[in-house]
Amino acid sequence: MSPKTVIIISGPTASGKTELALELAKHLNTCIISADSRQCFRELNIGVAKPSSSQLEEVRHFFINSHSIHDEVNASIFETLAIGWCDELLAVHDAVIICGGTGLYIKAFREGLDEIPVIDEGIRKRILESYENLGLAWLQDTVRTIDPGFYESGERFNPQRMMRALEVMQSTGRSILSFRNRQKKIRSFRIIEFGLSVPRKELYQRIDARVDDMMNTGLLDEVISLLPYQNLNALQTVGYSELFEYLKGKCLLEESISRIKQNTRNYAKRQMTWLKKNEHLVWLDNDFMNRILATYQSVKV
RNA sequence: GGUUCCGUGGCCGAGCGGUUAGGCAGAGCUCUGCAAAAGCUUCUACAGCAGUUCGAAUCUGCUCGGGACCU
After folding, report:
1. Nucleotide nearest to A234 (CA to C1')
2. Bridge partners of A95?
3. On chain B, which bases lie within 7 A of the protein's CB atoms?
4. What pLDDT does residue A121 have?
């Protein structure tokens, strides 16, 4: 019999992960853990292409509707939760499926993140405010002074990374570099990874069609109801940001819709770039179920 | 038929004698706590032909294409 196994199904958005995972879960009589940084929010539905309620009834899902947009969610939190669920589920199942397109979350699940202390909310806020008021030059100067090592190695034009380095330094007195040991964690189960490969042109067409579909099934109403929360991180999401612009009168509805399509295509492209360098991942372009099952059933421990 | 304006890379758009404008799209990429985020790289065009000039996308002429106005 096969060792306890986590089967990861990934791929760009609109590549058909959800359906495949569902089919596989039914076949193996197991559960699905989503690895999607947006589908975990119960307030977000249409715009994040969440599985339908009937699909959610057919197979038990984790990390879907598990959080509120007001909660803090990040890769580390995902890692902890997902490992916990896997341990529990693998006690009673031989396999668990992880399905999603958030590459960083999958990486965190597979090899873990280094332990970095939780940052005080006040420190984070102060840094963000300073950056917004004083700009990138201030951020660069500060990091160069406080953490020259990171400044040398880091991405100096990427405010997020610079602020991250700064908050770790201010909060712990140590450089973020000193926390990075890059030790890959060893998991207590086998992990096999698959990526769904769809020809670029076809994928882009699917994306366009899916956006039209979302609009027809009430995306605009969903976005209207979330307007008060537009500044939350969870709402910095393709499909929502663009419609906020329309609702604020900054553009026409048609412009928003084509921006959603455009941004989703760009997003899919970034996902593929991320997935491409994952050497554990096996690309599938057909016969998905059988090929996954063949790998699953081949015992090589 | 006449007068006049315009013609810049896939698209938008500045330049108006001598640097790569720039933006978007496309393509490639980075990536350990906001990742559907954030950032980086790349794509050398001036409708065509002839001329002026050391040098033209920029000036002149003609041709082609488009718009506006006049008869």
Report:
1. B34
2. A5
3. 24-40
4. 87
Tell me the CA distances in angstroms from A190 to A3, A95, A144, A297, A299, one per residue in order: 7, 9, 42, 12, 10
Give dist(CA A113, CA A115) in Å, integer.
6
Question: Does at least one atom of strand B sit less than 7 Å from the CB of A114?
Answer: yes
* A265 CA, B64 C1': Å apart: 39
Distance CA A145, CA A151 (A): 9
Strand B-contacting residues in A 244-273, CB cut-off 7 angstroms = 262-267, 269-271, 273
Q: Give tens-digit pLDDT for A216-228.
A: 999 999 999 999 9
Q: State pLDDT tens for residues A124-152.
A: 999 999 998 998 899 999 999 999 999 98
DSSP A206: H
Using CA atoms, how far residue A208 sits from A4, A49, A217, A264, in Å, is 39, 13, 14, 9
Q: Note the pLDDT tens digit of each residue in A24-53.
A: 999 999 999 999 999 999 999 999 999 999
Our measurement of CA A202 to C1' B35, in angstroms, reads 25
pLDDT of residue A301: 46
Does the C-beta of A109 come within 7 A of strand B?
Answer: no
* Nucleic strand B within 7 A of Cβ A104: yes
Confidence (pLDDT) at A1: 57
Q: Across residues A158-184, what is the average pLDDT?
A: 92
Three-state DSSP at A75 gives helix
